[in-house]
Design goal:
The structure is a single chain. The chain has 419 residues and is mainly alpha-helical. The protein has one domain. 65% of the residues lie in helices and 1% in strands. A hairpin with a 2-residue loop joins strand 1 and strand 2. Helix 5 packs across helix 9 and helix 5 crosses helix 12. It starts with a helix and ends in a 28-residue tail after the last helix.
Length: 419
């Protein structure tokens, strides 16, 4: 009981919830808790990451101008997909927050959502390194030994040493950042709930400006030789992998959910937002890498997520919300964790002396994608779903969780199925 009271005070809940409930109109229909278009959008983001890892290597595409064009087009797709994930995290957590929650309940759900799959993927990485090792370019287990503890504790992204932050499963560093998001979310929600609805867009603008400032701040960092994307170690870590710089995208997601909840969205159609997103991607391919990582596409991502959510709120149809896209979206987390191993396995089978032709490039891509999807489906069905059902929640006396301050004219969501 005492713990529950401490948590409630930490979230600053009682007064906030009472104020919200007193403003709500009982005659207003509820917003949908399940935003299927955003589930489909998760798959789009994961697929963009897959494109980068599958096609950025010159040997996986046809030689010559076509292959070079493919490499140049997909080389930064993964960074855009990661940015979509970070903004979506803030949006979805805010949208699906439960009035009966405590911080402990929230953290429990998030732990059992991400960590079991993450641990399985880490085990797969260890097996791959022990089996294939240097034959596919992996550092040995001994060379990565210093990264084991940070990896298991989801602390790797806090290290500027890429040998630690990108060790074992090369995409695992994003989960380190997500863990930081989840830890901070209860406190951020209380603070951001205090922003008046008419000022939310100003705060979003401030976060966007901050993201554009981060590349400039790299001028203060030590110099060094390029290690990836033409960036040195410090530039790569600070703009791409440092949890505090990526926090701005998460905060934007929280603010964006509040904008929709309070009726302050600008009502941009999904097709128009998609065109802006494509245009933003083209711009991203033609700006310096430090700006391409997040800054160049953050506004298009904001518009795309809000427009996709609005389609579901209004009960309209979208390609993102079709049954295949929702299914793929549901396995997208598992897919994100395992796709690099699927690509690596195909490379191992066909040999490292492989050089794709036009036909074999298609085969390589299709087999890698199919293998990743099947493996992801198995992980989702055998690990993620059962553990979520068994451990994500437990029966206990409910405590309140701070809800966003809302406009009484706007219907409110119920439940938390997006989590």
């Amino acid at each position: 009981m005492a713990t529950g009271m401490v948590v409630a005070r930490t979230w600053g809940m009682g007064a906030v919830v009472s104020a919200v409930q007193s403003k709500q109109s009982a005659s207003v229909a509820n917003m949908p808790a399940q935003l299927n278009s955003l589930t489909g959008l998760r798959w789009v983001a994961a697929f963009m990451v897959f494109l980068t890892h599958a096609l950025q290597d010159p040997v996986s595409v046809p030689p010559g101008g076509l292959g070079e064009a493919i490499n140049a087009t997909v080389v930064m797709a993964g960074s855009v997909g990661v940015s979509v994930f970070f903004v979506l995290s803030g949006f979805v957590l805010t949208w699906s927050v439960r009035t009966s929650d405590t911080a402990a309940k929230f953290w429990r759900r998030r732990f059992f959502k991400i960590y079991p799959n993450y641990l399985v993927a880490f085990g797969v990485a260890v097996l791959f390194i022990a089996w294939m090792g240097a034959s596919v370019g992996y550092p040995s287990l001994g060379e990565q030994a210093s990264a084991v503890v940070p990896q298991l504790l989801l602390l790797q992204a806090w290290s500027s040493d890429l040998g630690i932050s990108a060790a074992f499963n090369t995409v695992g560093w994003t989960l380190s950042i997500e863990a930081m998001f989840y830890l901070c979310f209860p406190f951020l929600l209380v603070l951001l709930n205090r922003i008046r609805p008419e000022r939310l867009w100003y705060w979003v603008g401030g976060m966007v400006v901050l993201i554009f400032c981060f590349p400039q701040l790299t001028r203060l960092l030590p110099a060094g030789e390029p290690v990836f994307w033409g960036l040195n170690n410090w530039e790569m870590w600070f703009v791409y992998m440092f949890p505090l710089t990526r926090m701005a995208e998460f905060v934007i997601g929280i603010l964006l959910a509040r904008i929709l909840l309070t009726g302050k969205w600008i009502n941009l159609p999904l097709w128009a937002a998609a065109l802006v997103f494509v245009a933003g991607y083209v711009v991203m391919l033609n700006v310096p890498t430090l700006y391409a990582i997040a800054a160049a596409t953050i506004i298009p991502i904001i518009l795309l997520i809000a427009a996709a959510a609005t389609v579901d709120i209004r009960g309209r149809r979208s390609l993102l919300a079709t049954r295949p896209m929702v299914w793929l979206g549901n396995i997208s987390y598992a897919f994100y964790l395992l796709h690099v191993f699927a690509i690596t396995l195909v490379f191992y089978v066909i040999g490292l002396d492989f050089q794709a032709t036009s036909l074999s490039a298609v085969g390589f891509f299709a087999v890698s994608l199919a293998l990743a999807v099947v493996a992801s489906w198995l992980l989702y069905e055998l690990v993620e779903k059962p553990i979520q059902r068994r451990f994500a929640t437990k029966r206990e006396r409910p405590g309140p969780l701070a809800r966003p301050v809302t406009d009484p004219a706007v219907p409110q969501p119920q439940g938390g199925s997006l989590q």
